[in-house]
Amino acid sequence: MLLSGGLDSSTVLAIARSDGFEAYAMSFRYGQRHEVELAAARRVAAHLGAAEHRIADIDLRAFGGSALTDEAIRVPRHAPGDDLGTQIPVTYVPARNTIFLSFALAWAEVIDAADIYIGVSAIDYSGYPDCRPEFIEAYQSMGRLATKAAVEGRQKLTIHTPLIDLTKAQTIQRGLALGVDYGLTHSCYDPVDGRPCGACDSCLLRARGFAEAGVADPAL
Amino acid sequence: MLLSGGLDSSTVLAIARSDGFEAYAMSFRYGQRHEVELAAARRVAAHLGAAEHRIADIDLRAFGGSALTDEAIRVPRHAPGDDLGTQIPVTYVPARNTIFLSFALAWAEVIDAADIYIGVSAIDYSGYPDCRPEFIEAYQSMGRLATKAAVEGRQKLTIHTPLIDLTKAQTIQRGLALGVDYGLTHSCYDPVDGRPCGACDSCLLRARGFAEAGVADPAL
């Protein structure tokens, strides 16, 4: 499973465990400006009993093109009530989920796993193309042809997206019911001294989720 | 385009150029025991006039599972006449082409490219699942849904596999006709002091290709 240390993927880890899986969690040091999320991923993996947690080093700065990996592109800040619009924002990282899923696919093959969990949602998200169900479905079809384990019939890949139809508030409620401590998670794209900025897309979506769920965010 | 510095991808670079493309070549430092191939990639990119050549650092040792990335797994050695068999060998790297293509897809998006070239062949190869046409086709379908550029109609991804139906000998003949200097390339999986071992799968396929083409290998 892919674990960023944010609200969504932390909830997914709890769901995978409650689905009866041993969880092998993978995070990435990819040149993100919010590398502090990796510490959150470590805390969450321990908190929710992941069997193993690996951090892979991959340099997405090699091609840039995103506010998250290129110091020259600023992360947009909003006021709390701002309309986030329907355009894909500059925090989009080219092909990020494609790359992350590919590492998960490789690791899955090595540990004889056929199930990959990812915390994408097509609701209350930033419009990223690689969070849509049609992308996930196409990735799964590709992945079923990609590996030695698949060809030899040992890996019938299933990509699980338990949050795909959930609002942020529903995700939070699901996670709370499963005992997730959201105080351990980190969502902000552009932290100031390790603390959430409160104004980036990710902070806004998170704040609205907690407000709608009627719960205080324990990370604030 | 993906450039390993080997015989196949070097030929593909020449073909992409002769197809009229500016070539942006990407190589990977992925913990491979034959990292010497990166020097070959650099030479070949310069020799064949790539517009740019980038080497991305990605740690595939994070999951291991291959003789190419795990020191504990030996690269098999063969006698020249050995039957290489039909089993996928231990030099297979889990999901390697999936990962490499994902980086190429990301870089393509950043530079506004829609065409990716890769030197896979379904003939005279090692049986790797991610070299088969059905894999490439599925990857292309996935890639067309994966990026912001695709969703916005600016990137209709085409994955070119000009070697897919060529024998190794035919690839060599094609490359020679395009002026490729194979003396600059490197194929060996397990070089000894930077020189080809002459006995791994890759050396054997290369030697048989040159023999069948009736040409001496200028790298020997």
Please sum up the structure shown.
The structure is a homodimer. Chain A has about 220 residues and is mostly helical. Chain A has helices spanning about 5-20, 35-45, 95-110, 135-145, 150, 170-175, 200-215, and strands spanning about 25-30, 50-55, 115, 160.
Explain what the structure shows:
Two copies of one chain form a homodimer. Chain A is mainly α. The first copy, chain A, is built from seven helices and four strands; from the N terminus they run H-E-H-E-H-E-H-H-E-H-H. Chain A has one domain (7-212): HUPs (Rossmann fold, 3-Layer(aba) Sandwich). The first copy, chain A, is 36% helix and 8% strand. In chain A, the strands form two sheets. The first copy, chain A, has a two-stranded parallel ribbon with strand order 1-2. In chain A, strands 3-4 form a two-stranded parallel ribbon. In chain A, strand 1, helix 2 (37-47) and strand 2 (52-57) form a beta-alpha-beta unit. In chain A, helix 1 packs across helix 6 and helix 6 (168-177) crosses helix 7. The interface between A and B is large, with 46 and 46 residues.
